[in-house]
Amino acid sequence: MNSNIYNQLLRYLENGEKVAFVSIINKNEIYSIKKYIFTQKTLHSHNDYDFSKSFYQKVQYVLQSGTIQFVKISEYYLYLIEPYFPEAHLIVLGGGHIAVPLSQLAHLVGFSTTVIDDRPYFANHKRFPNAHNVICESFDKCFDLIDLNDSSFVVIVTRGHKHDITCLRHVLTYNTAYVGMIGSKRRVRGVIDLLLNEGYLKENLDKVNAPIGLSIGAITPEEIACSIISEVISYKRLNKEITDCKKNIKSNWPEFDRKVLTELSHNYDIPKAIITIISTNGSVPRKEGAKMLVWSDGNILGSIGGGCSESSAINIAHDVIRTGGYRIEIIDMTSSIAEDEGMVCGGSMEILIECF
């Protein structure tokens, strides 16, 4: 195995594409796991590998739902399909009094944030030290400077009705994960009616969250920012998409440790083991997809939950480094050992350990 496929994975993510990362395991070939990458654009470009229709359906499901799939085809043949989504990007249109606490909260909960305003006093890094990017440009021209896609969460909190309409006109031409606009119900209704008369589709306008934010009785800028980021998180974690078979799927934004992927993308000739949680049962500290790296000298990167469960996995990883190949193991946290350690977990997790 080499680092090229992890380089490719990172490039897709940096380009804003969702990825299904497939590991094909044949127990008759103990020393190799075949790896493939699928995106929505390349989903059917691997026909020469003779994958089944049900396989493609699983890959499609992973791309839509963000849910890992570990499928046992037979006693000897199984595959793991892991979802990787680009970093969630919050676009804040307007740099006023709500944008400041909103940018801070977004940073704390893991969003990469861009703040845009047309006034230099409001659009600067001193005002928004936690923002990944701050753009001072008119609301009509700024869209040429950003890449809006289905990993973008757009918040419209400009200083005026006119600017809100300008921003919404532009945003509606993109497929974004979320769009919300501030304003009273009367003001929002006026904007929606205006855009309907201009020919914008009702189904697209119905997706606009306006007035923005969860209804928590927020009054102060900080409270309003809390209501907005809570609604944005709900779309990141609980949003629904429609599959080809017309069923609703809960779409969850999968988390991944970028440091682990970056390490795997490097061409280092130092043996190590990759540990991946492939399934869980009951209460566990980390969910499916969590990864960690283990080196023979005792160094580790990432975590699958810590405690005695992680220690057991690390010991197995050292064996795999020595022998090569891979192993699939069950880590049980329901025993008296877990109780003695004071662990609140009472479940188990299945892990894949592979030599790299």
Characterise the protein shown here.
The protein is elongated. The chain has helices at about 5-15, 55-65, 100-110, 160-170, 185-195, 200-205, 220-240, 260-265, 305-325, 335-340; strands spanning about 20-25, 35-40, 70, 75-85, 90-95, 110-115, 135, 150-155, 180, 240, 250, 270-280, 290-295, 300, 325-330, 350-355. By secondary structure, the protein is of the alpha/beta class. The relative contact order is 0.11. The longest helix is centred in the middle third of the chain and has 18 residues, at about 220-240.
Concise account of the structure shown:
The protein is of the alpha/beta class and 356 residues long. The chain contains 10 helices and 16 strands.
Give the DSSP E fraction (strand runs of 2 or more residues): 25-35%
Number of strands: 16
In which order are the strands of the major sheet placed?
7-6-5-8-9
Most strands sheet = 5 strands, parallel
Instruction: Give the helix proportion (percent range).
Output: 25-40%
Order of helices and strands: HEEHEEEHEEEHEHHHEEHEEEHEHE
Q: How confident is the prediction overall: mean pLDDT?
A: 88
- Gross geometry: elongated
List the total number of helices: 10
Parts with pLDDT < 50 across at least 5 consecutive residues: 241-246
C-alpha termini separation: 6 Å
Structural class: alpha/beta
Radius of gyration: 23 Å
Which structural traits does this protein have?
5-stranded parallel sheet; 5-stranded antiparallel sheet; 356 residues; alpha/beta
